[in-house]
Amino acid sequence: MVHFRNQLGALFILLSTSTIVISEIEINLNYDEVYKTNQSKKFDIRSSTTIECTIEASEGEEYSMKWMKDGKDLDTSSEKFRVTKDGKKHSLRIGKTIDEDIGNYSCVVNVKNDDEPKSAIIHMFSNFKVKTQDNMNFVEGDILRIPCTVYGKPRPVIKWKIGNRTYEESEDRVVLERDEEKGVDNAVLIIQEADLSDRGVYTCIGIRQSEPDIVDSDDTMVRIKDKYAALWPFLGICAEVFILCAIILIYEKKRNKAELDESDTDQSPDH
Q: Which residues constitute the signal peptide according to the record (predicted)?
């Protein structure tokens, strides 16, 4: 069992070692498990990960080593990759991984005076991640649409939870649509005409089909505004203005009447 840490300090434990012996060269490739008949290793999207290949050669045996991905030479001169060698151990570090980093990586050894290269292959695939917006606001009557973005391959199965109810397919007012760009079914939740009762927490849940124990989820707080919400303050202001005008009008009438009565008294013949 081999232990190493990635750039973020997360501890990886490599459970097994693949050994290939051809001619006088022995290649030991670290891997996690067997996935779809290939030795494999999982990594987290947007983090760094490292593959290690230990080469055992007879004394005096001359060889060269290179890394390949999906049968093509890997451009290890780019900033994304870092190749190091520590004695017999050759390491390939992949920085800030993305979906495109998934594939079959080969540790290829060319032995001097031997036309056929020796190699060991490891299948790299990612732990998936689901992500939704933290908060979303809609107006009553509008279309409520919540996308759930999925990172990593293979893609998980998506289902949704609203309150205490779980949706695995479209049902009643809730429509689950496919994210065509990512190729993920049920990744978009739609309610055609939102009403105030649709307020609450919406949870996108991803489950790896081949490994149901692997689950990831993310919540969105949905707020629905009354479509007349902007009207009530306006009506309130209008009512206040109306009342104020009425008060001023009544006050002015009373004042004018009082002044008129006083004027009549001043002009009385008794004075």
A: 1-23
Is residue 146 within 8 A of residue 162, CB to CB? The reply is no
Report the candidate in 92, 55, 97 with the shortest Cα–Cα distance to residue 73.
Answer: 92
Torsion, CA 191, CA 192, CA 197, CA 199, rounded to 10: 50
What CA–CA distance (Å, rounded) separates 66 from 58? 19
Specify whether the backbone of 141 is left (phi greater than 0), alpha (psi in -120 to 50) or beta: left
Each residue's pLDDT tens digit, 114-132: 778 888 888 888 888 899 9
Can you tell me the distance from the alpha carbon of 12 to that of 68, in angstroms, rounded to the nearest whole number? Answer: 23
Quick: pLDDT tens for 145-170: 999 999 887 889 999 999 999 999 99
Residue count of the chain = 271
pLDDT digits (tens, 9 = 90+) for 47-62: 899 988 888 877 777 8
Q: How many CB atoms lie within 10 A of CB 218?
A: 17
Q: Are 39 and 78 in contact (CB under 8 A)?
A: no
Question: What pTM did the predictor assign?
Answer: 0.60
10 forms bridges with which residues in the sheet? none
Cα atoms in the 13 Å half-sphere on the side-chain side of 102: 17
Measure the N-to-C terminal CA separation of the chain; round to a whole number of Å. Answer: 122
Please classify residue 93 by burial: count the beta carbons closer than 10 Å to its beta carbon, then call 0-12 exposed, 13-18 middle and 19+ buried: middle
Which tokens go with 250?
Answer: 């009544």
**What is the greatest pairwise CA distance in the chain?**
143
Task: Match 């013949």 to its residue by tokens.
Answer: 269
